[in-house]
Design brief:
The protein is built from ten helices and 21 strands. The protein is an alpha+beta fold. The longest helix has 16 residues, at 355-370.
Length: 468
């Protein structure tokens, strides 16, 4: 029976599925060992700090090994799946072959590095610039001939070679992330005692090698105080959820924004009765057949028109250059609550879209977010954001800016309330808008004008025709 050669096995490495991300968690495997895969087939779903992403395999073959189980966080550049590209099935290894594999093999020959040609990367993210050599096969220690040692000793000025040959140390067994950790901490892996299976060095072994040895002291003559108990919690009454992925990235971004940009929030209460009537009319319009039509659509359009009247609101603050960057395009962000946390994908070049096109883009954005399929690219480059807290029955809030943006509008619940209309108290559809903005580049006048324009459009939506 013929076994697979290492040359026929391709290693698919965790790609950088975002900009500058260093790790991703494997959420789900879609293939198992022995499955056939084809170029472009999705083999797993991973979650980064920005979104959940499906990874396609870039070649045909048969799955030989899944390197990590679901739920494991893997560093970018680490092999996650091995695929046999020879075209055959995964063979069963006979007992005789197992015995032959266990026989001593000279370790002087190191396996060749992976070909420098096509590398297993995610389409659209470039090719890795370096290749990784495989670990040498295990074998007996190779000694240097005495004559060669004698010559080397003479060259070094040490006289005759030692009587006993010095064995060549075998390379310690450790996975790439562990080797990187050891390098970062300055630990020589040859001095580390392995605790993993088959003599593999683990992360804990490296950390143990770094920890300073406890000084030897004489036994105290006085009784030592009782050890401080380790805090515990009742698993029946509490649940601990690790903060990672999208939720962790959102938390870090919000803290950074809140303590970097000086926030100012302004409020306005608006009679949106006419806007609600227009929504009902558009739902009956044949041009909007099959499209999502709701108040958020007209609020989004009102923001785009208000930006055209107040273009300086659409900007960002460049701390390094100490410059205000005015954006001549609008990537309109829509905050969306998902099972993995709050994400803010944006509609690219929203200012160029007609109302039906904007409706279609909003529908696609919401559907993709709910399915957890939003790509990292869809959440990058936003210029201004809408967060609709009204869907939860909340009147309004004080939203925190998305990093890199100058303003965010919170839309409250639309409720039937008593309102003075044409000199009489009547029941009207009313909502409250809250605009937070970065006071470094948006002063009170600009922020107030922008918010007032949005409110005026929602109160009299015919202004969409005269102001657009």
């Amino acid at each position: 029976m013929t076994t697979m050669t290492e040359a026929s096995v391709r290693e698919f490495k965790m790609p950088d599925v975002g900009e500058g991300l260093t790790e991703a968690e494997i959420l789900k495997w879609y293939v198992q060992v022995g499955d056939k895969v084809t170029d472009g087939q999705v083999v797993c779903e991973v979650e980064t700090a920005k979104a959940a992403v499906e990874l396609p395999i870039p070649y045909d073959g048969v799955v030989r090994e899944l390197r990590f189980p679901e739920g494991t966080t893997v560093d970018v550049g680490t092999s996650i799946i091995a695929v046999d590209v020879s075209g055959g099935e995964v063979p069963a290894v006979a007992e005789s072959e197992v015995a032959a594999a266990a026989a001593p093999v000279p370790a002087a020959v190191e396996e060749e590095a992976e070909p420098q040609g096509r590398q297993p990367v995610l389409v659209g993210y470039g090719v890795a610039t370096s290749s990784t050599k495989r670990r040498p096969r295990k074998g007996p220690e190779v000694t240097v001939p005495a004559a060669a040692q004698a010559v080397q000793a003479e060259l070094n000025g040490h006289g005759a070679a030692p009587s006993a040959p010095a064995p060549v140390k075998e390379r310690p067994l450790a996975k790439p992330p562990v080797r990187k950790l050891a390098k970062d901490l300055g630990v020589d892996l040859t001095t580390v005692t392995p605790s993993g299976p088959d003599g593999i060095i683990t992360r804990e072994d490296v950390h143990a090698a770094v920890a300073p040895a406890e000084p030897v002291t004489e036994a105290p003559t006085t009784p030592t105080p009782a050890a401080v108990p380790v805090p515990t919690y009742d698993t029946a009454r509490e649940t601990r959820i690790p903060v990672k992925g999208v939720r962790k990235a959102t938390a870090q971004a919000m803290v950074g924004s809140a303590f970097t940009a000086p926030h100012v929030t302004e409020f306005v209460t608006v009679d949106v009765t006419r806007t609600m009537k227009l929504v009902d009319e558009l739902k009956q319009d044949k041009e909007f057949a099959g499209l999502r039509v709701n108040p958020l659509l007209l609020i989004a359009k009102a923001i785009l028109v208000a930006i055209r009247r107040n273009p300086d609101i659409n900007a960002s603050w460049d701390e390094a250059a100490q410059e205000i960057v005015l954006k001549h395009y609008v990537n309109l962000g829509i905050a969306a609550a998902t099972p993995r946390g709050l994400i803010v994908p944006n509609i690219k070049d929203a200012h160029t879209k007609t109302l039906p096109q904007l409706s279609e883009a909003l529908g696609d954005l919401v559907t993709t977010a709910r399915e957890g399929k939003t790509s990292p690219a869809a959440m990058q480059g936003g210029t201004i954001t809408i967060t609709n807290v009204g869907v939860f029955g909340v009147d309004t809030g004080t939203p925190i800016l998305n990093p890199g943006e100058s303003a965010i509008l919170a839309v409250g619940a639309i409720k039937l309330q008593p309102w003075v209309h044409k000199g009489k108290i009547k029941p009207r559809q009313v909502t409250t808008l809250a605009l937070s903005f970065d006071h470094r580049l948006v002063d009170g006048e600009l922020g107030s004008k922008f918010l007032a324009d949005v409110a005026a459009i929602l109160e009299q939506p015919k202004r969409l025709l005269t102001w657009a």
